[in-house]
Design goal:
CATH class: Mainly Beta
InterPro entries: GH32_Enzymes, Glyco_hydro_32, Glyco_hydro_32_N, Glyco_hydro_beta-prop_sf
Helix content: under 10%
GO molecular function, one term: beta-fructofuranosidase activity
Family: Belongs to the glycosyl hydrolase 32 family.
Order of helices and strands: EEEEEEEEEEEEEEEHEEEEEEE
CATH architecture: 5 Propeller
Distance between the termini: 43 Å
Shape: globular
Number of helices: 1
Strand content: 35-45%
Largest sheet: 5 strands, antiparallel
Protein name: beta-fructofuranosidase
Keywords: Glycosidase, Hydrolase
Length: about 325
Amino acid sequence: MPFTLPDVWTWDMWFADDGTDHHVFYLKASRALGDPNRRHFNVTVGHAVSSDLRNWREVADALIVSDVPAFDDYTTWTGSVLRQPDGTWRLFYTGTSRSDAGLVQRVGTATSPDLYAWTKHGDAVAEADARWYEKYGSGDWFDEAWRDPWVFASEDGRGWHMLVTARANTGDADERGVVGHATSEDLVSWTVQPPLSAPGAGFGQLEVPQVAEIDGRLVLIFSCLAGELGSTRRAAGGGGVWTVPIDDPLGPYPIERASRLTDESLYAGRLVQDRAGEWFLFAFHHVDERGDFIGALSDPIPVSWGRDGVLRVADGRFDHLRAHEGLVRPTGG
């Protein structure tokens, strides 16, 4: 059964494995808000543990907003967590502040000895750089995108890379979505770099980006709803969770070749490997057949490579999506 909590909605999630338990961190907000659209600015980071990725036990929340004034005194949003070289854990998350009405996103960090008790560390460590990225008020978008940090080690083990949901500072408004990039030698100080993908691929934003290697093949996964797609992709179908095979974890990513892994019934997809080496999609149950918001975390959904070289949900439930979707070539940027 999906991980459903009776008193809160749950949505975007990220995972860690301590060798004994799997941990899931997720955004949550009280159902007493009434309107699920209010959840984004009444949010905390929840936490649950499981021995099998299927049966979850909720534990104490991981993060709440900071006291005013702070870059994260309004919201704490989606992130990722990793084990540091010294064995402790570091979480990267998105923060917004009341001083800019939650419209400017930045990345912050917290550490923990055990994945349960978290200590935040000062100010934001990264935000959009106007040399490459759209700043709030410089384009036609509703916010300044710099969120959903996904952090992983360099292949040579000499540094770290952060992928973020970002927007380029050139191109058509609904085509500016890119995978932002920052680098660090120590997980503390970060330098913003040019994006790892180009605008003009049909996406206004590429949410919760992640790179994974499945059966020796690299894949980028991200999410985008129909309302944030470029016109060509909107005409071809709706939104959902998207994937694209890639040649290098540091790009360039051929986003124009992305295809849907799921429709909009599932969103904010993550790829997770169990201890047997099998790969699964996790996402949150987004909307039902009537379009009403659900807000519950999915069970693990097996994924596998299709004969066409595209990652698929293994039970075939979304195979029909590709019948109407060809490759969408860049039109802008």
